Amino acid sequence: MDWRQYIHSDPKILLGKPTVKGTRLSVEFLLGLFAAGWTEQQVLENYPTLTSEALRAVFAFTAECMREESLYTLPLLSEAG
């Protein structure tokens, strides 16, 4: 998937955060909904301007960003105590 068809950054919209084109919905916000337990159906029902393809683009964009970033080892939950 070419996420560039769906995701862009404009300094005039949300201070340049990556957003879904044609919306003010940031990638960060949408990922937060999924992290909070929302389903794709719930997101699409609550934000009718979004499409399934746009949501896949959010994940494709995030995956590409993660591949290009340095990852840090996180302590195991039992060690963080």
UniProtKB/TrEMBL annotation:
InterPro entries: DUF433 (IPR007367), Homeodomain-like_sf (IPR009057), WH-like_DNA-bd_sf (IPR036388). It holds the Pfam family DUF433. SUPFAM superfamilies: Homeodomain-like. Transmembrane segments: none annotated. This is DUF433 domain-containing protein. It comes from Nostoc favosum CHAB5714.
